[in-house]
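Per reviewer request, we include the raw input and output of the structure prediction for the construct analysed in the revised manuscript.
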Amino acid sequence: MDEWKTFLESRTVWANLIGLTALILSSLGFSALGFEQEKIIDVILQIVTGLSFLASTIFRVMATRKITV
């Protein structure tokens, strides 16, 4: 891990940002037009959140370069 990469080049950072966005949308009660069943949207956002944080962990384990800001 001698090489460096910028903050936005990190898959870990992007996976966490996607997960955080899905979590915030779910917390705020986001609903999409055309869907009457809010439970479906809630489940989808929870799945996206879980998968993004799982991906974040995998990407960090596989990482070969350090992140700089």
